[in-house]
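A quick aside before the break. I want you to see a complete sequence-to-structure record at least once, exactly as it would be stored in a machine-readable document. Don't worry about memorizing anything.
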Amino acid sequence: MPQHTDIISIGGAAFDVFVRAPHETVTRNGDSFIQFPLGAKIKIESEVQSCGGGAANTSVGFSRLNLHAGFCGVIGDDEWGKGIQETLQSEGVDTATAIIVEGEISSFSIILMDPATGERTVLYSGNVNAHLRDPVLPKEELMQSKWIFLNHLSDVSGMIMDDLCEILLTPKTKLAWNPGGSQIKNGYDQGLEKDLLRETDLLFLNKEEALAFTRTATVEEALRTLAKAGAAITCVTDGAKGAWLSDGKTVYVSDAVQSHVVDTTGAGDAFAVGVTWGVIAGLSLPMALKAGMINASSVVGSIGTQAGLLTEKELYDRIASIELPVISYPL
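That is the input. The structure line, written in tokens, reads:
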């Protein structure tokens, strides 16, 4: 690996199978469910196989945007793992910090899609991703990267968080962070979450996560709380309703880009990639927010988490051609 990687993504990688099959969509207590009759044999209408997982998605996204991107996650030495590694390398992602576990099965997901809405249900087996709880991070290599992107991890241990706090003592290494379920549950003011927030340059949460993480009632309250906790820039997404971005002084708000939605999987990763790239490229915060919205809108137009990720030229062209007003107000 070159001595100075632009950004290394830490997190999951998985072999994804996207499936469309006849089903019913039912609503109970305000929640929607994909429903299949028990005991039935249902013919699949279409299926797409691809590489996915948070760190795989973001590292590919950054590489397409002309950043020297690395992947740091755990994969098995099975056929799925080899396929994941080949996909990353074909996209120009540096896999020198990938952690290969011999004799174990790579993570995989079966994603049941609803073509009417683009929403999906994900059946997920973590398998080797469980090793991210272990002290396996290549700290010396990570310290050489200009940025680290810590992807959403559902059950990461304190060991990983502690290692990251140590890595980020290196002044030249910056952090973009999408907290996982265990961190959201713990809260912004607890232990290692509190420590890591003080080192966070870019924070990504959806609206539900932001309110739960900060134990607040509104997005503005959450943004104030996270700014006081040390996050330099915080982004909060709300699906098709748009997103907020704040540097602790000003709030920037954008609607989502209107587009035909085929599959919403990976939209959050694509948004985070666009915003992070915009900040690294020196764009203004409104333009970085716009870049995130545009990248996300492209991904939801295709099946899979990576097919719609834009190149640098494509993103610059769309920033120039798509009218997407960003309003602002003091926080």
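Two observations worth writing down. The CA atoms of residues 77 and 103 lie 6 Å apart. The chain has a mean pLDDT of 91. We'll return to this after the break.
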